[in-house]
Structure formats: C-alpha cells, structure tokens
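Q: Here's a chain of 96 amino acids. Please give me its 3D structure as tokens.
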Amino acid sequence: MMPLTLPVLSEHSFLAWIDQAQPGDSISYYEGLLGVDRARDPSALPGSTRSELDRIADHAMALAKDGCLLLVQRRIAEGRIAYIAIKASDDKPRRN
C-alpha cells in the first residue's frame, strides 16, 4: 500500500498568499482527491488535517465566486489531483 503523503497547504499560508499575490500568480493548495479527502468516512486524513483542508477549500470557493481567484485542477496521477488557485486580475467581471 502506498504511504499517505497528501500535501495540505496551511490556512495561514493560503491566506497570506492571497494577500500578496499578483494577478496571474498561482499556488497549489492541495494534492489528492479533494471531495473524498474532505469527507470523514472515506478520507484517511487525520481530523485536524481534514478540518484545515475544509477551511482552505471553503476560502478558495468563496474567493472564486467573488471573482478574486480562478480555480483549476491538474491531474498528477491516478487518484491524485493538484488543486490550484490563480489570482484573478482586478478588472475581471464578478459572478452573480
């Protein structure tokens, strides 16, 4: 069985990046299967790590809805996705 090595960016680091990022800058905030790893039962992540991931994902989605971030995914391997946030330009139209 493969060892569990799913990098989770800390919430503090993610929020600090958002504050200093310039339009077009990007950051990978998680690698794994976000939907699975946020859920208690199928996830192999410890509860504290899962909670941190949940908060980061919620921040990312809220900021994407506000037009501040673009969220993309890149497949790394079978069952492993990189979740990437890209700082949007200030002149992007906002979603309603």
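Q: Can you summarize the key feature?
A: The longest helix spans residues 47-65.
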